[in-house]
Amino acid sequence: MGVHQDIRWLKNNKDRADLFVLVAKRGPARVRELREFLGSDDWWPVKVHIKDMVDRALIEETEDGFKTTDSGEKVFESLKAVYDIESV
């Protein structure tokens, strides 16, 4: 999948996009931290978003938590550029 398709896919769900940005900005993040970030009492939405992003190869699991892949870094850089342009 291309960067533009991944950006559209992320933007289709605010929570998913927010989780992706959090992982991209902070580096490895654990599921508990991501759940707390969303302010959710339920684990399942967070786990579903994580699984979907892993399946799309945007993030990967490491010993320290989830972090962006090389492909995910490209998406994040493009996403930052899109938001910078939109904010002007």
UniProtKB/TrEMBL annotation:
Record lineage: Archaea, Methanobacteriati, Methanobacteriota, candidate division MSBL1
Organism domain of life: Archaea
Stated name of the protein: ArnR1-like winged helix-turn-helix domain-containing protein
